[in-house]
Description:
Helices cover 0% and strands 37% of the residues. A four-stranded antiparallel sheet has the order 8-11-10-9, with no helix packed on it. The chain is globular and about 40 Å long. The protein is mainly β. The chain folds into two domains: 74 residues, no CATH class; 63 residues, no CATH class.
Amino acid sequence: xxxxxVGQHQAFWEIVTQTSDTGTVAVPNVYGAAGYGFVALTQWLxxxxxxxxxxxxxxxxSTFQVWNSNYTGDSADFVIExxxxxxxxxxxxxxxxxxxxxxxxxxxxxxxxxxxxxxxDIVMKxxxxxxxxxxxxxxxxxxxxxxxxxxxx
Length: 153
C-alpha cells in the first residue's frame, strides 16, 4: 500500500483547495497498468463533485459523487504520481513519455481546452543531482500534451 491506503497503480481522488485537503482516497477495484490508457474525469455540480475513472487495462470503472463546498475553480492538475514505500519515495520509473490526450478544464466544449487557460509548465527536478528529470511538452490542438522523461533513476 502507498500513502493513504492506496494500492500500487490504484485509482484515487483528492480535493485540494486553499483551505482544505481531503488526502488521497482509494477508488475500490480500479487499477491502471503501465502502457494502458486511463480516463479520469472530475465535474463540479454546484455543491459536489462527480468523479468518473476507467482503466483500459482491466475494463473496470467507477462513477461516484463527493459533497464538498470548497470549490474555487482556479486550478486543475494533471499528475504523474511518485509512490511511497515505508514512508520513503520510490525511484521514478523510466516512463519515457506519458500522453495526456484530452486535457480539459471546467468542461469539454470549445474554450475549455487547457491551452485556453494560463498555465505553468512544471519541471520535475532532482534535489540530489540538480538535473531535470521530466517536463511537460508543448500543447497540441489545445487539449493534448506530453510529459517527457529525461533521467529518472
